[in-house]
Amino acid sequence: MTTPGPDRSGPALLPSDEVAEALRDGRPVVALESTIISHGLPRPRNHEAAQEFEEILRSAGVTPATIAVLDGIPRIGLDAEGVRRIADDDMVKASVRDLPILAAKGVSGGTTVAATAYLAGRAGVRVFATGGLGGVHRGASESFDESADLSTLARAGVTVVSAGVKSVLDIPATLERLETLSVPVLGYRTTDFPSFWLSRSGHTLDWRVDSAAEIARVMQAQDALGHGQGIVVANPLPDELQWNPEEHDRVLATAFAAAAEAGVTGKAVTPFLLGFIVEASGGRSLEVNLDIARNNVRLAGAIATEWSALSA
Ligand code: PSU
Ligand code: MN
């Protein structure tokens, strides 16, 4: 005899009423990630940020769908209490592989880009805004540390707006993997792949797009071709808002040294580096991080609006 676990007869995932209605009516919806709130930004700014990202979308006539796992159930769209929980509660960092385990145990988690994209795709939300994508870590040829964000985007039909990947990762290797996985990468008004806090990385993209409408047409064409991959939209901050490159390089070098000394590995690496960098930059990296996320949420809202017009 096994002991009965929590009641798992509920839904596999649960859209909020607001999100369900918007999807049913074909109105624009944008998915928002929760690991950026639970593990990527310090308290209490993380709670303000989560509310602000939703507000940016609402004021543009777009329904926000912040995605997280609450008590085992993946939620597509949170109420105010749900948003408070992802910011204030100690939650696990949940990637796609963790979802069934959280479900069976009734545990809560902030969803990574991978888990958020997967769940958004399942719920029919086609556009997703985050800060930076996960990618191939430096030294990955030894450690095999490559974010599940990449392989998941090869399967989830979701357009993800990010400011590229942080320079804490191996940027050229990340771009190579996206090529292998056949995930289109579109530079928004640029062909220089951004490196999150900095508007450029020096790595050149094949394709540039200049409007949200053009991105929606790429989505439509991809659907028609039946590929089913996600799309990465790389949206750099305007030059005048980026982090000072010299300070960026200096702080990153100390962050790597601290991570090596602390012996941090695996899924703890990204949160450790982000936390260290906020401290070591005296909060400057945090302000840039918030500008990046706002910029991405705005563009994602515009893409979702064009997408809903196109699919009407
Ligand atoms: N990049 C950021 N901020 C973040 C993350 C990435 O700039 O908070 C988070 C995202 O949730 C991303 C995850 O999906 O880290 C990748 O973690 P890993 O490398 O362990 O897959
Ligand atoms: Mn990893």
From TrEMBL:
Ranges in a coiled coil: none
GO MF term set: hydrolase activity, acting on glycosyl bonds
Swiss-Prot/TrEMBL cofactor(s): Mn(2+)
EC class name: lyase
SUPFAM superfamilies: Indigoidine synthase A-like
Catalytic activities: D-ribose 5-phosphate + uracil = psi-UMP + H2O
Species the sequence originates in: Herbiconiux moechotypicola
Classification via Pfam families: Indigoidine_A
Domain of life assignment: Bacteria
HAMAP family recorded: PsiMP_glycosidase
Positions contributing to Mn(2+) binding: D145
UniProt cofactor note: Binds 1 Mn(2+) ion per subunit.
Descriptive protein name: Pseudouridine-5'-phosphate glycosidase
Family assignment from sequence similarity: Belongs to the pseudouridine-5'-phosphate glycosidase family.
Function according to Swiss-Prot or TrEMBL: Catalyzes the reversible cleavage of pseudouridine 5'-phosphate (PsiMP) to ribose 5-phosphate and uracil. Functions biologically in the cleavage direction, as part of a pseudouridine degradation pathway.
Name of the gene: psuG
Binding-site residues, substrate: K93, V113, S147, A148, D149
EC number: 4.2.1.70
Residues at the active site: E33 (proton donor), K166 (nucleophile)
Subunit structure: Homotrimer.
Assigned keywords, A-Z: Glycosidase, Hydrolase, Lyase, Manganese, Metal-binding
